[in-house]
């Protein structure tokens, strides 16, 4: 990307360069930075609306604080593109979220300016408080700042951290980036003045002296507190955070550097926990994103002059869309169905369901733990809850999954979207572990549909059960198998023999591939290439042990294939079952390794893990010494 269009931004190689600029130059820099973000994301894809909304806040923070010695913890972290650009990664934005390129989230191994790795919501205050306490123990004057959005603030973990921080004397600043409300008149000139006043040393000292005097007369101290809260309530939305023990300041315009910089300069001099409320607008500066921040939350490549356009030919239905259609159809048939999402309505394909069944739709906010236990409560009263949740986010509700649902054997369906590698969002969002961590729980069942049709069918099967079931499916489209209109399910806990190998040639092992989920289709390609039997297992728990026994006794070797972690996964379940059946047969387990796999194109990532057809075939030939000639003879026979 040419720096000629961004002459001032081109001079910024690290945040120290910002601290040499005048206020007027910083305003010019903000315009260039916003244009750079827009141009950059339009070429690579990525998160847009949130990043356009944090330009001025990012500039103000780096202009006031001594980074990297002062620490910034960005909650969720998908709003950190301006931060990355200003901290020496401007020229690497062309590789954003691509293999070998920079991450779309803060990553400690990527830069010393990324103080804490984030991507899941509501962790920032806890992490920043830990840093602030560490600074205090070490006698350091460095500062810790948590920047958290209004959505992330709804999670219980954020309030646990606030509760802890409020009784601490550590120097912690929590910035609430409120982008869910428009910038209204109270956030104008008067409020700017009051925010600077409340963040100033005079106000802090006067407040301290007043408290020390009034302590001698407790009734007057209580009266003074109430009067102060009422006075603040005239110009700020709430004083909830004062009750947590923070000094609350704001709200102020998060796009006004003349407001942000003086207020932050004042706050940096204060001691103890501080809370700054800033109001920003998603998509700020790009009218199309301002008008529809959801559509521009995470777009692919597009032309900024035109905006997002619908493809000429409709794409294949995604697994998410298949789930959304099934949810509406099943709800129309069974009035017991209720649907729950932890703040992922669009991502989980539930927009139409909310419109058609608003009384049976529950968006509980970013509260995965609550969503699971809430579903348990609904199930106790005879309803049939369906929790639509990403695989990576169910990790946050693991205790509730065990204690509140499985232990009581409640009939809750968990629709696990984004199972397996997710691509550009990287290791933090990968759904690699759900087979391993769910199949270990008593009463749980785990369904692994191979394609869109089976996804709909297995959702129906899961819904018909009287115990908890997870149905896991990947991001995007699969093999393109058209779902049936009916709501009939498939047999519970049963797989199918999809391909029978031709008679084997002498000296060549008879191989059977046991495929779990969408890797059935590359397995079928390999079956043709090496003349192997291919089994569509469909269930990681319960395993179809009758089918497994039949196949194991009629073949010389087995290969398990899954898009989850090998350790504790479906292949491990097969080994456990074979041991119980007293069958001794060689087993090759193929799946994701014991490593975190970073961001990149999902097709390329799967190939790198040898989980595409070519990789699976190569692994089989190497493990069982299957030659091209032998497999060709078998196929011909």
Written account of the structure:
The chain is α/β, with parallel strands linked by helices and 637 residues long. It folds into three domains: 9-291, 3-Layer(aba) Sandwich (Rossmann fold); 319-472, Thiamin diphosphate (ThDP)-binding fold, Pyr/PP domains (Rossmann fold, 3-Layer(aba) Sandwich), CATH 3.40.50.970; 496-636, Rossmann fold. 40% of the residues lie in helices and 14% in strands. The chain has 25 helices and 17 strands. The strands form three sheets. A seven-stranded mixed beta sheet has the order 7-6-8-9-11-10-15, with helices on both faces. Strand 4, helix 11 (257-267) and strand 5 (274-279) form a beta-alpha-beta unit.
Low-confidence stretches: 181-186, 231-238, 633-637
Question: With helices defined by DSSP (H or I, 4 residues minimum), what is the helix count?
Answer: 25
> How many domain regions?
3
Distance between the termini: 58 Å
Number of strands: 17
The mean pLDDT is 90
Globular, elongated, flat, extended or rod-shaped: what is the shape? globular
What is the CATH superfamily label of the largest domain?
A: Thiamin diphosphate (ThDP)-binding fold, Pyr/PP domains
Helicity range of the residues?
40-55%
**Top-tier CATH class of the largest domain:** Alpha Beta
Keywords: Isoprene biosynthesis, Magnesium, Metal-binding, Thiamine biosynthesis, Thiamine pyrophosphate, Transferase
Domain Transketolase-like pyrimidine-binding: 317-481
Binding site for Mg(2+): 150, 179
Pathway: Metabolic intermediate biosynthesis; 1-deoxy-D-xylulose 5-phosphate biosynthesis; 1-deoxy-D-xylulose 5-phosphate from D-glyceraldehyde 3-phosphate and pyruvate: step 1/1
